Backbone:
């Protein structure tokens, strides 16, 4: 058997997918896996994973669509749209190379569901197509019901939403909800902008996402990066009605249960050694991923709150943003804080000193926090961040959202105090521990996630 895997090379999508492929390769050692991804993304994820791939996985680079000597704008979606314009021909070329090098025809195609064109590639080859949904499944429903949501949004505008709302201001949309199976808790303002573009603002990325719902509904097997136990029942029932095999295989970017922490002396960033010197559940860990662009004014407000509160903090802050810190901040906070350009996040969250995670609410960050039983303070920025924050705060009730949706000195101090000092914070910590236990049970032998993974192995090896 020869399984081809198409990765979406942005955010944490590719890293999640290669982790799933490694698990599959170890479970199906007679099956060859060809992992197709851009060169830049491949270099990044294999550096990050720091592990040797199983012998039955081979990687191939696909063209990223970036012209020679291209100068990028500040728009983070620009890379995505250049890549999309290159698809599917870039994947087809790499696929031909994989077949030529291995001498084996492709027997099955696994692909990130964002790459909706992969269904047509599989159809042309007369092979099974198994899409993998990487974000939370709630966002999958927003793509399945995109047409209905857009119509509801249009009606909201015609029913009295002001011009500021029409221009993209979230204020009036914040309290507008919509009735879609399993999504009754969500508000229109939680949706990614690509779900609600006005026709004149359609982009290659929004068009790609708009095709997802129609394409995935053609398959009988969908792999989901999630646990069945965490769904609202109406959403689970709705998705099960659409897919014969809804395989909730758990958090595919993580090992469950989380591995034991390595000796702190092996951590070259110094984060674990610093955490060793702090008291249990007292540290605020702060990270907003690798993509989010944080306004300088918010960096300054957050820094001022950390300085005044005296709460121990570990801040993973990219070097290109470090210049936004107030003058003298690092020196004035060196006794109770640590700022690093990169932190071993899963290990930081697993450390007993970590008491709260201040996050942009990317799916992988949320999953890592749940897996380690750490409450969250939410400052969502883009994509599915707002939707994930809604789940954290209003559905699972395992975190708090920053007042007003943006960092202010007062709002940050209030959220930190609530989680780390107050009874409400203790209740939140108790709930996130309960969610963690659900996840661990589902990952154990005989658990739902374990059984779903076994079904997936059977599907790719018994084609």
Residues:
């Amino acid at each position: 058997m020869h399984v081809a895997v198409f990765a979406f090379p942005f955010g944490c999508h590719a890293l999640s997918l290669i982790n799933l492929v490694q698990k599959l390769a170890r479970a199906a050692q007679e099956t060859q896996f060809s992992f197709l991804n851009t060169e830049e993304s491949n270099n990044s994820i294999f550096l990050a994973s720091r592990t040797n791939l199983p012998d039955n996985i081979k990687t191939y680079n696909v063209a990223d669509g970036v012209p020679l000597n291209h100068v990028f704008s500040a728009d983070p979606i620009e890379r995505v749209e250049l890549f999309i314009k290159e698809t599917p021909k870039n994947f087809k070329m790499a696929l031909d190379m994989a077949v030529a090098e291995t001498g084996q025809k492709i027997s099955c195609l696994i692909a990130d569901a964002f790459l909706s064109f992969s269904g047509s590639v599989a159809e042309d080859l007369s092979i099974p197509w198994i899409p993998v949904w990487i974000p939370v499944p709630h966002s999958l429903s927003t793509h399945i019901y995109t047409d209905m949501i857009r119509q509801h949004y249009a009606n909201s505008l015609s029913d009295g939403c002001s011009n500021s709302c029409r221009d993209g201001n979230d204020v009036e949309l914040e309290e507008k909800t919509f009735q879609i199976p399993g999504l009754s808790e969500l508000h229109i303002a939680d949706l990614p902008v690509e779900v609600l573009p006005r026709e004149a603002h359609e982009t290659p990325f929004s068009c790609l996402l708009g095709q997802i719902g129609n394409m995935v509904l053609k398959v009988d097997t969908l792999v989901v990066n999630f646990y069945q136990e965490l769904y609202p029942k109406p959403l689970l029932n709705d998705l099960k009605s659409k897919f014969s095999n809804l395989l909730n295989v758990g958090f595919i970017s993580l090992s469950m249960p989380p591995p034991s922490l390595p000796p702190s002396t092996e951590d070259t960033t110094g984060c674990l050694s610093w955490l060793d010197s702090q008291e249990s559940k007292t540290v605020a860990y702060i990270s907003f991923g690798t993509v989010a662009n944080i306004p300088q004014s918010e960096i300054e407000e957050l820094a001022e709150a950390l300085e005044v509160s005296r709460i121990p903090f570990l801040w993973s802050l990219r070097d290109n943003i470090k210049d936004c810190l107030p003058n003298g901040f690092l020196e004035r906070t060196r006794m109770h804080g640590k700022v690093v350009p990169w932190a071993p996040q899963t290990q930081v969250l697993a450390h007993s000193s970590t008491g709260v995670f201040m996050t942009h609410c990317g799916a992988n960050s949320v999953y890592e926090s749940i897996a380690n039983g750490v409450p969250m303070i939410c400052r969502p920025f883009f994509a599915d961040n707002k939707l994930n924050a809604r789940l954290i705060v209003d559905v699972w009730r395992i975190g708090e959202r920053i007042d007003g949706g943006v960092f202010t000195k007062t709002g940050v101090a209030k959220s930190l105090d609530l989680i780390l000092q107050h009874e409400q914070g203790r209740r939140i910590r108790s709930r996130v521990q309960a969610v963690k236990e659900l996840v661990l049970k589902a990952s154990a032998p005989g658990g739902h996630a374990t059984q779903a993974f076994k079904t997936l192995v059977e599907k790719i090896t018994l084609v």
